[in-house]
Amino acid sequence: MSDSIKGPAPPPTKLDGSPLRVAIVHSRWNKPVIDALVAGTIAKLKATGVKDSNIVVQSVPGSFELPLACSKLISGSHVQAGATATDLLGGLTSLNPNSRSSTPAPVAATMPHQPFDAVIAIGVLIKGSTMHFEYICESVSHALMRVQLDTGVPVIFGVLTALTDDQALERAGIGRGENKGHNHGEDWALAAVEMASHSRLWA
Ligand code: DLZ
Q: pTM to 2 decimals?
């Protein structure tokens, strides 16, 4: 057993995700790690009661694109009755966790979508030999914070900023060594449900 004190304590009350609608926006860089993180996030969202049909998964090219996508999803979800996430982002690939199809779902003209209660931004940045990593880490973290403060919708920071491939793999629970690590997507799902529930109470 590890004697580390790191990691989140459990929430003070039982989480109930059943009334919530959550968007996951993920980048496609470093895909094996992204896939594990997205799967861990979805599994934990469902474990708290979030319904399949209330989880929208959207991909963008890289982490730098995450803040704009989160912002568009949040603002679009309020005003575009019946639009799918794909429509809101102008045709980027949308993945429903059930179908995993790249074909946009039909637009339901009479059924307005609920707004998103939380958005989880997932990216994996791995340091290279230039300053690129530092610039993207800094700008993306600031921009995601800005989106949540500007919109009032919780934006969960699911961006790994790893110095090595192994650090990234271990934080997705797929480490190459004996210790597989821990899938941080699970923590991000819990943070999303907790913050979304708080936000409903605070509204
Ligand atoms: C260009 C780039 C590089 C070098 N590394 C990563 C990375 O490790 N993780 C990531 O999510 N994205 C990376 N990108 C892509 C940028 O985030 C962005 O998509 C492009 O610069 C286009 O704006």
A: 0.85
Angle between helices 31-47 and 184-202 (to 10 degrees): 50
**Separation CA 46–CA 18 (nearest Å):** 9
Length of the chain (residues): 203
Q: How many CB atoms lie within 10 A of CB 199?
A: 16
ipTM topping 0.90: yes
Residue 8, SS3 per DSSP:
coil
**Residue of the nearest CA to atom 6 in ligand 1?**
125
Q: Whose CA is closest to 120, among 171, 155, 89?
A: 155
**Tens of pLDDT along 24-52?**
999 999 999 999 999 999 999 999 999 99
Distance 198 CA to ligand 1 centre (A): 33
Active site annotation includes 132: yes
Query: Catalytic residue among 132, 142, 184, 198, which?
Result: 132
Nearest residue by C-alpha to atom 21 in ligand 1: 64
Exposed / middle / buried, residue 49 (Cβ in 10 Å: 0-12, 13-18, 19+):
middle
* Residue-range domains of the chain with CATH: 22-202 (3.40.50.960)
